Amino acid sequence: MKNKLASLWEILLVSTRLGLTSFGGPIAHLGYFRDEYVIKRKWMDEDSYAQLVALCQFIPGPASSQVGIGIGMVRAGWLGGIISFIGFTFPSVLALILFALTLQSFNQFDLGWIQGLKIVAVAVVAQAVMGMAKNLAPDFPRKTITLIAVVTAVLWQTTMTQILIIIIAGIIGFFVYKNVADHKETSLHVPVSKKFALISLVMFFAILFLLPIINQIFTAEWITVFDRFYRSGALVFGGGHVVLPLLEMEFVPSGFLSEEAFLAGYGAAQAVPGPLFTFAAYLGTIINGWQGGLLASFAIFLPAFLLIAGTLPFWQQISKNKNMKAALYGVNAAVVGILIAALYDPIWTSTIHSAADFSLAAILFFMLNYWKLPPWIVVVTGAVAGAIMHML
């Protein structure tokens, strides 16, 4: 019991620190997670981490949040997943609730430091890509799969692209590596029962299909709000940037809030650390105070937890299969390619606009990759440098 409590406390501390410092969106979060959980703490190996990322790319919901939940589950069961989620998510939920409550006095801030934080994301993702490519795409076939994934993801940007890339890469990996003798055991062991997993999947679908019916019967505002946020979290592929326009369609035309209020929150969501899905906290607060913010946050993230809890224990068993491991060789290489594509667009294209931006990105990359400085120092440096550059 003492060891379990110590593990949960460690998960809370580490995930909260990441929740306070992980700027840059979902792909950058995967870089922060890899640096903290794989490289520094060695809670799982590189292959297991890539498998977890691939699974979370394959199922709907906020991929980076689901990876964080999955890491917590691997470390300390379903309770570890909840603690990891709370630590990583609560800082940005709190920040956006406070922003919504003080909207009139919180609109005077310098955009320069936000640009600096976006440049930090460039350095973080570049470091993650280099490290993962070295381990997951070491030979010619996997380098080729990575290249194909990059080109496809950049040129064909749809909500289904990543899923199709992963499926095709898995098929290629199966045929290329099915006779490879070195099928080493991975450490992706999840202390969660299959019974709990099945209950989670049943709950996911039951809530998804029953909530609209309940909403029609009782027509209470909080049920309507819960239903719309849950459905948004359950049916979106591609992460936070995809769910934002979906939320706008759900709440602006119906009069829950104005277009101006929505856009103000959208800007704030880009400026805080943690997952973009916490934008729901802002919307819920505008609709019904801080209680509405907490309800909206719970509703939009609940399907993410149910899906990862419902699939990860089965994924563990499937990944032990020799043929599946061969397929995962290709999948892992494709994940590297998807990350490289994301480094280019949207991260690079929306961030690096000048020689000064590129120079700062290079400095921050060296701070992370070669000088081995803690990520929080890199984040602070990027924010301060961005503010200074904005004033010059």
Automatic annotation (TrEMBL):
Cell location: Cell membrane
InterPro entries: Chr_Tranpt_l_chain, Chromate_transpt
A Gene Ontology cellular-component term: plasma membrane
Chain segments annotated as transmembrane: 78-101, 113-133, 145-176, 196-217, 229-247, 294-314, 326-344
Top-level division of the source organism's lineage: Bacteria
A GO molecular-function descriptor: chromate transmembrane transporter activity
Keyword Lipid metabolism listed: no
Membrane topology: Multi-pass membrane protein
Main location: membrane
Assigned keywords, A-Z: Cell membrane, Membrane, Transmembrane, Transmembrane helix
Family the entry assigns: Belongs to the chromate ion transporter (CHR) (TC 2.A.51) family.
Identification of the protein by name: Chromate efflux transporter
Origin species: Bacillus mesophilum
Gene that specifies this protein: chrA
